[in-house]
Amino acid sequence: MPSIESVVEPLVSLRDVHLAFAGNPVLKGINLDVYPGQAVSIIGPSGSGKSTILRCITGLLQPQRGQIRVADTRVDALTREAQRIELRKRVGFVFQQYNLFPHLSVLQNLMIAPRKVLGRNRIDAEKDARALLAKVRMEHKADAYPGQLSGGQQQRVAIARALTMRPQLILFDEVTSALDPETVGEVLTVIRELTQEGMTCVLVTHEMRFAEEISDVVYFTENGVIVEHGSAEQIFEHPANERTREFLRHALGAPARRGPIVSDPYLLTNLSRYSLSV
Amino acid sequence: MNHWLEFFVHWASSLGLNYGFLLDAYPRSTLAQGALTTLWLCLLTIIGSLLTGLGLAALLTSGKRALAVPARVFIEVTRNTPTLVQLYCAFLVLNMLLNQAVGTANPLTPFAWVVIVISLHKGAFHAEALRAGIEAVPAVTLEAARSLAFSNRQLLWNVQLPLALRFALPSLINNLIDLVKMTAVASAIAVGDITYSAIMIWTQSDNVLELMILLLGFYGLLSFIVNCVGRYLEARLRMPGYGH
User: Fold this and answer.
1) Quick check: is B38 in a domain?
2) Membrane spanning segments where (chain B) (predicted)?
């Protein structure tokens, strides 16, 4: 969509962002743009700085160098708490470990931020919360507590909780990594619907097929740098970089299969063939 | 009331215990006054120690060295010396210095000194229990609250403290049960609590065993009430899906 990009300002832009933890460089010059309504995926091996990028965008981490802009806010230059609060009202965040408040019911988890932070009244906040729970198909668990829900259910509640603030942008940080393969689907369905409604999303993910399906732009990171970025088709079908090709080969495809060993009597799978009647 | 008392005295005498002194107005009122004093001591020191603990825990977890180090020194000195010695030290040394300085204008009675010493002493233990609770709140839960645009104050009151209190509650109740029993040190500086009253009565008559049974029963009952309140709070604050 280069024609759109040339007229519309990016909602998020990172320029030459550097960040180190105690002298250990994690981000080494990240450039990234997210346009309104886009779904952008960041893929790459573990430890490549993907989650750190998301935490920088919402001001949970402060880079040592470079510029981060969200709409008209210079995130890297924020110094006061009130400024960060204004930013975070507009940027939702969904975590790998859900991070719901365990002492509050599902409904209270969804109502606390709108009531305390946005100052909305109880009736409106509850109406909104119930509508959002219905959207993520969790309305039947409104009075349950996070500890009573499965991982997939907790993650859907966490997405609804981020939506209660009516953010312009949602950041998803490996939101399916802690889930079993069956419940991954229910969470991805919710995210897919959000992107179809035009919500601007940045996803850090290891779900390659999902990233390919929903992303407008895909970034591949390794060792704190963006190795390659482009449309989903370009990255997944015709990756230009050798490292991207190698990563995707491992992530997407055929793990090396071992041929069946048919005649080994000590192999468990062959046991029946050799079992004795007793 | 008197009817029941007579019935009890009669029943106890059949077990060989002489509770006849309870029918005398003077020892009875001494004991009742002592029981009331102990109740007041418990109430005031429970409140005082919890406030002290909260303050010390706040200093410890403030992340500022200038605040955390003095709090840590205070806690270590306080919890590593005997309460009774601290009470003697406060009453015999500090109180005397205060008397020398301000004379009869000294507002601190022996009762007040007991409340102060026990509040500070148990406050040090509460602070450690609360610190454990505060540090047990996962950093990612706080990150989640921050990402929802909570201010530091909102985060403290709506997320960090409610969770920390739940984690610290069993330890805090443990401390409070110990505190109830600790109020008996008041008798060492002649504060008329129930222990002191009992001593006053048994030095004048031969009924140590009977008074001991009363004393133990009284403290046991008080501790049990604290325990029940603690259990009730734990049940009230229980987070479904966590613990039992």
Assistant:
1) yes
2) 7-26, 38-60, 184-202, 208-229
